[in-house]
Each structure stands twice: as C-alpha cells, then as structure tokens.
Amino acid sequence: MAHGRTRRKLPKHFITAKAHHWPRVQRSSQLLMMAWILLPLGLYLVANDLPETSVRRAQLMASWTPTFFGAILLLFGAWGVGTAVLAMRRKGVDAIDAKIRASGLILRGGRKVAWEEIGSVTAISFQNDAKVQLLWDRAELHRRLEVQLKQPETGTLRIDLVRYPAVDYLGLYESLLDEFERQRIPVKHRKKWMQA
Hints:
Elements: E1 14-15, H1 18-47, H2 56-88, E2 96-100, E3 104-107, E4 112-114, E5 118-127, E6 143-149, E7 156-161, H3 166-182, E8 187-193
Parallel strand pairs: 5-8
Antiparallel strand pairs: 1-2, 2-3, 3-4, 5-6, 6-7
Helix pairs in contact: 1-2
C-alpha cells in the first residue's frame, strides 16, 4: 500500500516554462533592490564630497565604493530580469529547446533535424568558480549543445539548456547524449566559464 508519496514526473523533452526562469527573476530583483540602495547613497556621497576626512584618497574610496557596487548590481540585475522576461515570453514551438524523436530532433521554432543530418556534437558544461556569483544558480543545468550538421552551408545549431532545473533534467540530458552515441554521432565534451 502506498504511503501517500507521489513520484515526481520527469520531463521527456526540453521545453522551457516560466517556472524555469522565475528563480532568476527573484535573484535579479534582489540585486536591483540592493542597487536601489547603494547607487543613490554613493551618488549622494560623491555629490556632497562626503565623508569628510583628512585624507582625500580615503574620502574618494568611501564615496565611490557604494556608487561602483551599486552600478554593478544594477547592471547584473537588469541583465537577469531582461533575459528571464524574454525567455518567459517564449510560447508554443518557440518554447521548444529540444524534443527527442526516433527520427531525430525537433528544435526551437519546430525545426526538424534528422539524425542522418548531424555530423558531430559538442557538449558544453558551463562552470563558475568566481568568489561572488551574482546570478549563478547551482541548481540549474548549465549545459549547451553545439550540433554541427553534415552540410557545411547550414552551419552549427546551438541548443541552450542553461536554465532547466538540474535535478529534473540531468537524466534527460544524459539520455540525449546517449542517443547521439547510439546514432554513431561523435560527441566532444568541453567546459566553459560563465558568469551569469
């Protein structure tokens, strides 16, 4: 007899949803609130030549430090909210990042790519070792696939799988890599650094 536990249904495709981007909006909003405090404070100190100290360099450091950090927080916060809102607006076939089918992949915009058209894949895992990680969320997948097609004129397809919750989507990502191997498509693994 079941003890009231329900099993979470794991996803079968990479289709973005508002819930995937909401944590980024929350983190970015916190940065914007801190910028809203620090930036006006710093500008007030700079405009009024405060605090008064006997050493000019100390005065400049004390007045420009909140201004500098407020500006940085404002930039990161605005970037985070802007990118999250754009991603949240994706609907229908534009919300598809990757659907796995027996015949191949269905990508953003409903584009179909047969397994036979794919020459190679580069699987990129993003890393962030910075001491201050303003927008980075360790709970996200942080992966990208660069799919090189056999026809050189069609170029490379980029499949961003960055904001998906890793706990739900890591297994699906690994099964996609396994499917490339089963289809005899070479997969190269790379690591890249990413701040936001």
